[in-house]
Amino acid sequence: MTFPIFLQYTAFLLCVTLLVKPLGGYMARVFQGEWTLPDRLLRPIENGIYRVLGVDPRHDMAASEYSGAFLLFSLFGALLLYGLLRAQPLLPWYDAALLKTPMTPDLAFNTAISFSTTATWQAYGGETTMSYFSQMVGLEAQNFLAAAAGLAVGIGFLRGLVRTKSPGIGNFWVDVVRSILWVLLPIALVGALLLVWQGVPANFEPYTRATTLEGRPQSIAQGPVAPFEIIKNLGTNGGGFFNANGAHPFENPTPLANFLEMLAIAALPAALPYTFGRMLGRPRQGWVLFGVMACLFSIGLTLCHAAEQGGNPWVARAGRIESSATENQPGGNMEGKEVRFGIGGSVLGAITTSNGATGSTNSMHDSYTPAGGLIPLANMLLGEMVFGGLGAGLYSILFTAFIGLFAAGLMIGKTPEFAGKIIASGEIKLIMLYTLVAPAAVLIPTAVAVAVPAGLAGLTTNRGPHGFSEILYAFTSSFANNGQAFGGLSANSPFYNLSTAVAMLAGRFGLAIPALALAGRFARQGRRPMTAGTLPTDSFTFAVVLVGAALIIGALSYLPALALGPIVEQLLLAT
């Protein structure tokens, strides 16, 4: 690893760490109703929204009511977006000569589910499918709304752990409104201006007509890219304005823009552990959770970088191409990577997006070495517990902690507990349901896809282990509400549009609903005092238990599938 790349990785983690306390403390104050600097401006707007919607902000919802509101909000958003996409030819800025990908019912259904669940899986190219109106009013609006709903669910889950003998976990509508007004919108406004400064367009100019060096005509889209780009990253969404997503020079023109966009992905989810610690009155608890996240992030970054910097051994053995790093070239595996980012910026993007439930990739993961592509895949399969989706990442790591504590409790013959809350049989059933949803939603459709002609038809460039990896990656990304893909899979077909949509729904609601139900059970409990026999959950021992539980669960669930894909492909590459 060269010093500039090491400096880039270190600077990124340092910036994320420095933002944890101010952002985490700010969100704790926002969602606990404490005073914040924007209150004087935003409180009247907030109250006006409640009057229009007929919401009583003082109403405390039980977990079941909170879940119902979340489902209703998401369903309404999906239906509204589906209708807008189907009516796209009748709406402004539509040009049939430029938008050549038809918005079929199955593609519109897939896209509506995708953006309303923050998966932002794209079976289409943005500039050849979506008008400026659809991008801005449909997709960008859902980037705000779905992200706010995810953050609200995460906050509701935290209240379940913080409250004692409480019938409710908060008000979903209040949490959504405050997520947008106090958190997402102010940061997005500043972030969009920074991206415009770096050269990201923000206009409504018509497509530019150009002629290539080969003499062929080309249409180059512009549009309101900067505001779209910042919220897709900040809200851990990831759907690209252009087909090339974060690798497109209009979405991500400079190394500094790349750094800022990766920071936008990680900042809020990384700060939520501290928010939890502040709400609980034990900031050290939040720092331990963040420390585990940062450690796992660093390990993934190191392993992925080593795989990509090591390059392709077949190329090295061929003897025709120099793949070692020199003063004149970066060496390693540069296939599918933008030269303006190099291996360092590309790997940082791969690890950040795969950990952060954000498909805003700035390189083609399909072109990574098998070992390099395995790391982003493993990050998603582990539940994106490192930072993760906005709200979802924190309850993902806490569910893993609950399993570790349950196993530790069995070994010492003591009822497991976390933050003074008992993890009894009822809680364990919900935790097991949460844990089993992922393997079922990922492995079953993968098995179906490799067994039926409609699934195999999507493999237009690769077969064998790599083709299997492409299918496994697709369903993993869909379930993880991530959206990134191995580009060799042609997913715009009725089979994949419908099957990946089901995986997205399972990844959003199959995890959030058990999490809220568990929060409701915790909120109704009292809080047990710590004793000499209690495992401190703000200690190094707890961190080891947490990491061990994550690795064991991941290996037991997915190692056979990984052995059929990237692992065997890497072994073949070494022969």
List keywords for this structure.
4 strands; 575 residues
| First and last CA, distance | 25 Å
Q: Unreliable segments (pLDDT under 50, ≥5 consecutive)?
A: none
Question: Main β-sheet: number of strands, strand sense, barrel status?
Answer: 2 strands, antiparallel
Mean pLDDT: 89
Please give the share of residues in helix. Answer: 55-70%
Count of DSSP-assigned helices:
19
Structure description:
Helix content is 64%, strand content 2%. The two termini are 25 Å apart. A hairpin with a 5-residue loop joins strand 1 and strand 2. The protein contains 19 helices and four strands. It has a two-stranded antiparallel sheet with strand order 1-2. It is globular, with a radius of gyration of 23 Å. The protein has 575 residues and is mostly helical.
Reconstruct the topology from this structure.
Elements (H helix, E strand, L loop, with lengths): L2 H29 L7 H15 L9 H24 L18 H12 L9 H4 L2 H31 L9 H26 L10 E4 L5 E4 L4 H10 L20 H26 L2 H28 L2 H6 L23 H14 L14 H12 L10 H21 L4 E2 L2 E2 L2 H25 L3 H4 L7 H16 L14 H31 L15 H35 L1
Antiparallel strand pairs: 1-2, 3-4
Helix pairs in contact: 1-9, 1-12, 2-7, 3-4, 3-6, 3-18, 4-18, 6-7, 6-8, 6-14, 6-18, 7-8, 8-9, 9-10, 9-12, 10-12, 10-13, 10-19, 12-13, 13-17, 13-19, 14-15, 14-19, 15-17, 15-18, 17-18, 17-19
